[in-house]
Amino acid sequence: xxxxxxxxxxxxxxxxxxxxxxxxxxxxxxxxxxxxxxxxxxxxxxxxxxxxxxxxxxxxxxxxxxxxxxxxxxxxxxxxxxxxxxxxxxxxxxxxxxxxxxxxxxxxxxxxxxxxxxxxxxxxxxxxxxxxxxxxxxxxxxxxxxxxxxxxxxxxxxxxxxxxxxxxxxxxxxxxxxxxxxxxxxxxxxxxxxxxxxxxxxxxxxxxxxxxxxxxxxxxxxxxxxxxxxxxxxxxxxxxxxxxxxxxxxxxxxxxxxxxxxxxxxxxxxxxxxxxxxxxxxxxxxxxxxxxxxxxxxxxxxxxxxxxxxxxxxxxxxxxxxxxxxxxxxxxxxxxxxxxxxxxxxxxxxxxxxxxxxxxxxxxxxxxxxxxxxxxxxxxxxxxxxxx
Length: 388
Ligand SMILES: Cc1ncc(COP(=O)(O)O)c(C=O)c1O
Known about the structure:
The chain is of the alpha/beta class. It has 2 domains: about 1-245, 3-Layer(aba) Sandwich (Aspartate Aminotransferase, domain 2); about 250-385, Aspartate Aminotransferase, domain 1. It is about 45% helix and about 15% strand. The chain contains 14 helices and 11 strands. It has helices at about 1-10, 25-35, 50-65, 80-85, 90-95, 110-120, 145-155, 205-215, 230-245, 250-265, 295-300, 300-320, 345-360, 365-385; strands at about 40-45, 70, 105, 125-130, 160, 185-190, 200-205, 275-280, 285-290, 330, 335-340. A 7-stranded mixed beta sheet has the order 1-7-6-5-4-2-3, with helices on both faces. A 4-stranded antiparallel beta sheet has the order 8-9-11-10, covered by helices on one side. Helix 12 crosses helix 14 (about 365-385). It is globular and about 70 Å long. The protein starts with a helix and ends with a helix. The structure holds pyridoxal-5'-phosphate. The site of pyridoxal-5'-phosphate has 14 residues, from helix 3.
């Protein structure tokens, strides 16, 4: 990838500012729309995931003439004021309020709740992730997303599918919604769009919706920003797409993801603090929680809950980091450890990861063993600090 990019630098100048007709942006837009499929044919570039979702919110208001937004509990769409308004966890957004008025949430995956909310016909858009990543690798029931799109069409709401984290092979498919039998009205992309090398995001929709939103002299400029669609980021995006396809990385994600899921389930079977291990492709979540009625669970359920919900995931991720294994808890759920290895990961590396995670997690069979280890390690650090 680095060699390919240096060729780009020497062959032609790559400006960072969007200054009129842009060849790289046009090429990337064409390549993305081709892969997303009809009728998604308009691609508006920006520089981050939050901006891509902001773009979708604007399109939805302008195209429908409505102002309200529907999103899901547990959702994560970014940290700008608009995206915080549709965030699925209120505590994160509260301190910077007031946010956009008239935003409502429904439980993710609950089609009846979505049906009732959409039937009010007051929402400009329903924002939904194909899989909630920061919400804890939550998968909707089969057919949920297609039914949401059908309901949105029936009630004049735009379905905005946020693929910022799931896009570009992460789930074992190029895009998570593909093969699900529907096409969303608006798709948002970022993160892996440039292989995490350059800042870029995209809001993609149909020509008809784009015309309704931006097809007039007084608002055609609304989607633009200085760096949106800059030549450098778009050239990197095109190279990323080529590398993804030439190296079959979505297929690798599927196969290695199955290996990771199978291996973790086998090695951690019967673990008393693991409730579930789930995920498609290289997007795997390990959910912690007591699985038995141990004495501590019965005596102090709140303490057990606090340790597992509040600190255990972080404790485990720090220990894996110490061994060179990068991972994190989900933003909204610290009781869920998120494993998202690079799409280039090999069979051997996945095997190493399985062994490492299993080894760390089997050290803790009860909340008492976690508390004992935390006290021991913190005590050691304290002693070192005070040079005892
Ligand atoms: C689904 C989803 N949407 C939007 C965003 C926001 O992207 P960014 O951090 O680039 O603004 C994220 C970031 O994690 C995300 O996971």
